[in-house]
Amino acid sequence: MTGKPSVEHFPALDATGICRSAFITRIPGIDVTSDKAEALRRLETAHREIRRELGLGDWPCMTVEQVHGNQITLIDVAPNTEKEFQGTDGLITNQPGVLLGIHVADCCAVYMVDPKTPAIGLVHSGKKGTQLGIAGRAIEQMAHHFASDPRDLVVQLSPCIRPPHYEVDFAAEIVRQCRVAGATQINDSGACTACHLERYYSYRAEKGRTGRMLALLGLI
Fold first, then answer.
1. Domain for residue 2, yes or no?
2. pLDDT by residue (tens digit) across 57-71?
3. Which of 35, 119, 151, 197 has the most other CB atoms within 10 Å of its CB?
4. What is the pTM for the complete model shown?
């Protein structure tokens, strides 16, 4: 690895005692002034090394294509290999030892943990996904597939872009949608990706030529 990245953890998720979570921020020394596919390729080795350092190297990591929609994919059988699910922006599972992954660079990664069932969800919610209500839909899907009570869910919003650096406060709308869906334990990091380019990647501030943070969530 060419630089020492920072990994953020969220106390509300850690306190559940049933999951492992992380938010991998900007990695110094890696040139990401390219398109998304190339930037992710350049970051892949570093992200894998960080997963190993976190003790998650053996957990298969499931990611999504991230098409700015509101489709949620259910993982109800523990996979043997890593996979990217096409045409979807969110994942839910009740399978332990499976790592869910979302890449973001201004959009919000929304973590959902049901410590009672137990079950988890991780979704990509930017401007379009938020307009389509993906966070609320994920809560509904967890209730449908796992009988999760929304009131039991611990919801965590990752760092994302916020006003005045962006014209829409989609973080506030995500919180509102989660409350409408019945969630009451909602936590927002409050951090703005465009405000802290030394720590985060920002698609808007860096005019589209940047890397991606990696949100990770798995059941123990």
1. no
2. 999 999 999 999 999
3. 119
4. 0.96
